[in-house]
Amino acid sequence: MASFVTEVLASSGKLEKEDLSGKISKMSRKVEDTKEEVCEMINKRYSDFLPSLQGSEELMVQVDEVSKEMDVLKNCIENEIQQNIHVAVAEYAKLKQQLEKNTVIITMLGYVKEFHNAMEEFSKALQEKKYVDAANQLERVELKLSHPCSKDGEPKPTGLLCCVLQALAIQGDLQHKIKLFSQVLLKNMLKPLVVYPSLSVRVTEQQGEGTILAFECLEVSHEERSTPSQVYSKLLLVLKTLHSHLLDVSISDKKLSTILGELIWEEISQCIIHECLLYSIPTNSSQLEKYSTVIRETEEFEKSLKVMEYLQGDSTDLLKYARDVNCHFASKKCKDVIVAARKLMTSKMHNTVKIAPDSKLRLPKLPAPTSDVKVKQETKKEVITMENTKQLSAWSLCLPACRISESVQQLMELTLNTLCEAVGSSTQCALQLFFTVRNIFQLFYDVVPTYHKENLLKFPHLAAIQHNNCMYLAHHLLTLGHHFRAHLPQPLSGGVATFVDMVPGFRKLGAQCFLAQLNVQRAELLERLSTAHNFCNLDDEDNYIAASKAVRQVIHQLKQLGTVWQDVLPVSIYCKAMGNLLNTAITEVISKIMMLEDISSEDGEHLHTLCQTIIEEGPLVFIPLAEENKNKKYQEEVPLYVKKWSTFKELVIVLRANLQEIVDRWADSKGPLASEFSSSEVKNLIRALFQNTERRAMALTKIK
Q1: Measured between alpha carbons, how far is 405 from 451 in angstroms, rounded to an integer?
Q2: What pLDDT digit, counting tens, does each position of 594-611 carry?
Q3: What positions does the domain ZW10 C-terminal helical occupy (predicted)?
Q4: Could you tell me which residues come within 8 angstroms of residue 46 by beta carbon, excluding any fewer than 6 positions away?
Q5: Domain boundaries, the chain
Q6: What is the pLDDT of residue 677?
Q7: Is 0.90 surpassed by the pTM of this model?
Q8: How far is CA 78 from the centre of its chain?
């Protein structure tokens, strides 16, 4: 602060002036010295001539001359003294004026320092959530703008201000000082007014002190952001006050307000865009028409700034941003939609909803398509009616009953709402929204399998739900573009608006996910059966216990899966999946038994018992529906879903049959045994089950 005062005083060239009282004392001493010199000179001349001139007339003449000289000297001394006094008084007046000016500057610098300290304390208290302290600091802030006033209270001309500014400009300091002022103004007043809706400005006129700009904290605002109208009015109040009291001054044919505007406009306009206008963009197309009010308010705001010469030229980035509301609406909508979609994709999958065959998308009522489209649709309908005299079933192309994630249903609704926003929008906006919907589906394809990868392998329930989710999306992607195409602008209505190309990918994604889970379950089944010691030597109690335990574990695993997938998977997928797993188990059992070279009668009984357990309890794992009485149908259809079921049943029969019964079931390669086993497999079974006798030899000759 002291350096700035020193700089101002130095610029006026007054620091090196002598003190007024010292000047006057010096002049007084000079006058006294002059008087003494004159008296000495007169006395000397008088003493030299007095003896020679006594009693003569020449004496009087000489005296007259001396008197005249003394008068001249006296006048010279008086003139010199008078001149020096005038110079001293004028210099004193200038020093007094400079002192008053410096006093005002020092006072203003004190206000700026107090303002700066208060704002720092305010920011600190706000970060520490000390709201009472923050409010008290705001109360301390005042910005006073005043002109020096005359005794009668009327503002003085701005000549002094112009002079000071001109001097700073000559020294090259004006731009730096205004830049510092602009930074303080932006940080501590203009930006807070944009960001905080609870802040306002109070302007008061105080007699003798000038105009005061002060922050005022209103009651806690329920709005997170100020409206453009509120921001513009607060900023204009500050800038108008500064203009009328400080900045309406020309420096080198350029207004001070113009200089300040060049320094602050870019930063404050970006602040208005990102902290205010961005949040005023409508969230749905129905509100776009009302946004014309914001555009008009922005135009008026810039017009007012041009009048005060803060702005030069035509429209700025601020006005361009407001006028490009359609593009910003589409961009904001697309961003919000993608964020919402990603949130749904990463949410928990196990919350499900039931989808029935008659379930339909809740499509909103769309405006009627153009006349050209109507004609094409009617013509196409007539052709279809003529060529197809028989109608398809009402359930044709319907999605089978199943359960999907609630989040996927919400995702589908999100895409529908987004496409509805595209209807009636400008071409650019409609294109952005349409391709955002495509991006949502692509995002699902990429994100969900990766984000839920571990759970999809770990929990069969989630794998089934993911399978259904993919099939649900693929089902609706077939017709989604058709629903909206006629209501969208070109080129979307010309055939671009389609999602059919994404259908195979989603079907493959769902199938791969569920097949991966089936592979996990198959591996577990085989692991359990591996503990059965290959079903050999079952006459040993330990071996029989191990084999029996393995079979029970397989049945238990299948029943658990049947319960987990019940009412989740479509019935057809459920039956195929359970049939595939049961088929894996019995195929492994058949393989192990066929590899046995010697099966005693006791072993045969044990094998028969274990296999019979599978035959009796295997069908019971088919419980696709929650209503038990409706599952009997699917339990009777086990041979349709378990490829080796008939083979397994024939094997169980053979384990207890005699040689003749086996030969009869072979029936010269025409019996049920021949349809399930090859001749070599049957011969191996006979050799393992029966001792080497003539009857066995005769039976073997008949198996060919």
Answers
A1: 15
A2: 999 999 999 999 999 999
A3: 549-703
A4: 66
A5: 14-141, 172-208+224-314, 334-359+400-513, 532-656
A6: 94
A7: no
A8: 87
